[in-house]
Amino acid sequence: MTRPSYPDKPRPGDRIAVISPSSGLPGILPLPYELGLRRLRDEFGLEVVEYPTTRTMGSTPAERAVDIHAAFADPEIKAVIASIGGDDQITVLPHLDRELLRANPKPFFGYSDNTNLLALLRNLGIVGYHGGSVMVELGRPGAMHPLTADSLRAALFTRGAYELTPAKETDHVNRRWEDPRTFDSEPEMRPADDWVWHNADRVVEGPGWGGNLEILGWLLMADREVRPVGDYAGSVLFLETSEEMPSADEVYRILRNMGERGLLQQFPALIMGRAKCWSFAQPLGAEEGDRYRAEQRQAVLRALSEYAPDTMAVLDVDLGHTDPQVVIPYGGNIRVDGTAHRIVVTY
Questions:
Q1: pLDDT of residue 2
Q2: Pairing, β 15-19 against β 236-240
Q3: Which end of the chain has the least Cβ crowding within 10 Å, N or C?
Q4: Residue 149 sits in which domain range?
Q5: Residue 156's domain is classified under what CATH number?
């Protein structure tokens, strides 16, 4: 499989599209959305362009596809960023004009359910960016986290190597977006554990593939945007789990089934995101959250031991549904240096 190429980057002053390929949450939760838009304008210097479904809950997959096409086809739009994720972007994929997207490559930023579009773009030969959303990272209460802002700014505007830095703190308890008081101060943080290295005795370098684990499971079940397993040989797998907080058993089963397919063993290195361990549906205490993360790490290592025992792994990396968050190039180069305990991505 040919490595995807990097689309041209925007510059301050350029126009950037904000779309909602999954959920139209900006329409019912405007506070973090409007804050994120202000930061795109004031802190990143970009002109924001919205589309008909960006603030529309319940828009059809075909309507959302029209907005994706419009954003990519407009030569004045220099990058595209998702407002937030959701749970049905897989239904948008059949409506997309792949030749239109291939002919108009642009940096696309998103994660979670946006794993669908990132995987499609990679299959079209376009590097995307797993991370950064308007409502979450840009709309963070109080201020953007410096680690998040630095990574997102580098991914948006620069080309070349960028070394990921382990976070010294991480979020735990969230606050309601409906309440204006939520945005008066930054989230409460707690000390973050360092990355966990496994089989760290070599250097692996290759194009990144992966995304949100639950969404990848759905893509595999629907046989969408997943290429023959051999096409991933030598790539770097990166994964993360969502705020729905799948159990350790479920994480193991998804990875097991990837192993049964012959997919898991194609990757000489795995980067696993720091697990989200609190939600309004599962408000775990600090000790319970630590236990949840530990059980997920054990599940990942169990699957690797059974299907890919030689794979190098780095766990608790700050990607995906975590705060702070670093951006991972989807299809772009990732260098995992086990001997030096360093991860360098190419934006």
A1: 74
A2: unpaired
A3: N
A4: 15-161
A5: 3.40.50.10740
Residues 117 and 169 in one domain: no
**Within this chain, do residues 336 and 245 fall inside the same structural domain, yes or no?**
yes
Let me know if 277 is exposed, middle or buried by CB neighbors in 10 A (0-12, 13-18, 19+): buried
Q: What number is the average pLDDT over the span 154-178? A: 96
Mean pLDDT of 163-176: 96
The mean pLDDT of the chain is 97
Helix (H/G/I), strand (E/B), else coil: 171:
strand
User: Distance between CA atoms of 58 and 55, rounded to whole angstroms?
Assistant: 10
Using DSSP, state whether 251 is helix, strand or coil: helix
CATH of the domain at 294: 3.50.30.60
Token pair belonging to 18: 């904000």
Answer yes or no: is pLDDT of 312 > 80: yes
Residue carrying the six token digits 């108009």: 104
Q: Which of 123, 143, 161 is the last residue of a domain?
A: 161
Same-domain pairing of 233 and 108: no
Task: With CA atoms as reference, report the closest residue to 207 among 300, 122, 311.
Answer: 122
Choose among 121, 179, 154: nearest CA to 344: 154
DSSP result, 125-136:
TB-EEE---III
Nearest to 276 by CA among 235, 326, 241, 238: 241
Residue 7 lies in a domain: no
pLDDT for residue 1 is more than 70: no
Based on the fold, state whether residues 167 and 309 are members of the same structural domain: yes
- The number of distinct structural domains making up the chain is 2
Domain co-membership, 213 together with 298: yes
Tell me, what's the pLDDT at 99? 98
Would you say residue 172 has pLDDT above 90? no
78-130 confidence digits (pLDDT tens) = 999 999 999 999 999 999 999 999 999 999 999 999 999 999 999 999 999 99
